[in-house]
């Protein structure tokens, strides 16, 4: 690779280090990997692999992982849509879908959940953007772990379609309780859901089929 092409990749690529891998995203990467490893799946489908950091890391840990993306330029294992997953029922122990569904109109949210429930054998690890004003304090005391105290104020801003997201949790019309209700309607048990104030834009849902 020439210096010119390296510079172009670094500065212009959709998944370049400068534009894509900001520090909060690394926190999100950690949580994705941590949640997957704790669930001990034998095989994984990653929907929307982005820069494939998660794919590579989990593969290096010995996991059988396949990727799906609607954009063939991202070079997934399978080109396809989350709205019509080209797999048999119960094909994967776990589906990882991080920061993907907001790129589709909200009317498609239930369809995507239904498809993931059909193809997942056991679990879905899902993250979605959560907008809001974060109030956050982190305290470190000797001999103790960090203590984090935070809350997020949301629901006051209307989402403007025109960017890359059609909707976000916390914007007017998309409260967290609505998202959780719709997830449960698709016969998922929410094992836990949370955001990490060090990556406050990504809200995680750890789901189990029931």
From TrEMBL:
SUPFAM superfamilies linked to this entry: S-adenosyl-L-methionine-dependent methyltransferases
Highest rank taxon of the organism: Bacteria
Domain Methyltransferase type stretches: 45-122
Matching InterPro entries: Methyltransf_11, SAM-dependent_MTases_sf
GO MF, one example: S-adenosylmethionine-dependent methyltransferase activity
CDD domains: AdoMet_MTases
Protein name: Methyltransferase type 11 domain-containing protein
Organism: Candidatus Falkowbacteria bacterium CG1_02_37_44
Lineage per the UniProt record: Bacteria, Candidatus Falkowiibacteriota
């Amino acid at each position: 690779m020439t210096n010119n092409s390296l510079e172009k990749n670094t500065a212009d690529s959709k998944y370049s280090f400068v534009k894509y891998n900001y520090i909060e995203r690394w926190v999100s990467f950690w949580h994705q990997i941590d949640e997957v490893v704790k669930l001990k799946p034998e095989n994984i489908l990653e929907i929307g692999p982005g820069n494939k950091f998660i794919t590579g890391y989990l593969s290096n840990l010995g996991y059988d992982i396949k990727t799906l993306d609607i954009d063939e330029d991202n070079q997934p294992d399978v080109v396809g849509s989350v709205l019509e997953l080209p797999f048999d029922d119960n094909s994967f122990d776990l589906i990882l879908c991080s920061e993907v569904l907001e790129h589709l109109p909200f009317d498609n949210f239930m369809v995507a959940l239904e498809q993931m429930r059909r193809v997942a054998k056991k679990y879905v690890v899902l993250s979605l953007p959560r907008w809001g004003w974060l109030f956050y304090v982190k305290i470190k005391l000797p001999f103790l772990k960090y203590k984090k105290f935070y809350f997020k104020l949301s629901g006051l801003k209307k989402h403007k379609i025109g960017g890359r997201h059609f909707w976000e949790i916390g914007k007017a019309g998309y409260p967290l309780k609505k998202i959780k209700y719709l997830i449960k309607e698709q016969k998922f048990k929410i094992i836990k859901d949370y955001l990490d104030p060090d990556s406050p834009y990504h809200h995680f849902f750890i789901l189990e089929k029931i």
